[in-house]
Design goal:
This protein is mainly β. It has three helices and 13 strands; from the N terminus they run αββαβββββββββαββ. The N terminus is likely disordered.
Length: 249
């Protein structure tokens, strides 16, 4: 995998067109439900997620284009979730800012700083290492993308934090890519918990301050999902569910 390539990250600097104003559900305790896939048809790509360049929704692309995105909504025990299975490296994007740079979902990171999500890993890429340029695969990663960071080559790129379930790196390991603009945090390691749902919660403000040394922007740009095994030529399978932003307890 090429992680998220320099050129793809640059795409997130430019306006993302949302085709219609949409809303996100909020719970009684103030949490924002980003995605639980319950409104998506089984066997299809998720309805509200965009291609890796943030150009338009996956469901609005041609079949030939979309078939390279190996993510499908499935259902088990009356619960819908997103599954990735395959080798190819293509992330999917949930933009939070529209073409006018409006905060369309009214997300304030300082009100809901806790990112919560579930992963069920089935098959990890063999000997993968997210800090290596040659073995950079992951069974399951979720990214939060923020505003522009340091200059990389001739332009600035967005800052991002990547939370990853690693094949080989220990839980708690950190690293960076893209001239320090992409920070990596390992939240789970190895195959001990494969086959079971694992819930993760991270304080984005605390992680951002620790990884970047300053305060995060109030409004993040996007959330990305990525599983892949192309660098290690591995078949990978993982499930995602219940992506939320929660108030601090």
């Amino acid at each position: 995998m090429k992680l998220i390539s320099y050129s793809l990250l640059l795409c997130l600097l430019f306006p993302i067109t949302l085709q219609a104003q949409e809303s996100l559900d909020r719970t009684n305790d103030g949490a924002i439900l980003i995605e639980d896939f319950e409104n998506d048809p089984v066997g299809e790509l998720p309805q509200r997620w965009y291609d890796r360049d943030g150009n338009k929704k996956l469901i609005n692309h041609s079949v030939d284009f979309s078939e390279h995105y190996l993510y499908k909504v499935l259902e088990d025990a009356n619960n819908k979730f997103l599954r990735y299975q395959g080798v190819t490296a293509k992330h999917i994007s949930f933009p939070l800012i529209n073409e006018d740079k409006d905060n369309i979902y009214n997300i304030d990171l300082y009100e809901t700083p806790i990112l919560s999500w579930k992963v069920r890993a089935h098959k990890l890429p063999k000997n993968a290492n997210e800090k290596s340029s040659d073995l950079n695969d992951s069974v399951a990663s979720i990214y939060v993308v923020f505003d522009m960071g340091r200059i990389a080559l001739v332009k600035k790129v967005p800052k991002s934090i990547r939370y990853t379930w690693s094949s080989t790196l220990p839980e708690g390991e950190t690293g960076s890519k893209l001239f320090g603009n992409q920070q990596i945090i390992v939240v789970e390691s190895g195959d001990e918990k494969t086959g079971q749902w694992v819930t993760f919660e991270r304080n984005l403000i605390e992680d951002y301050r620790r990884m970047f040394g300053d305060d995060p922007p109030r409004h993040p740009l996007a959330i990305l999902i990525l599983s892949d095994g192309n660098s290690t030529d591995s078949y990978v399978r993982a499930d995602y569910d219940d992506i939320m932003l929660k108030p601090k307890k």
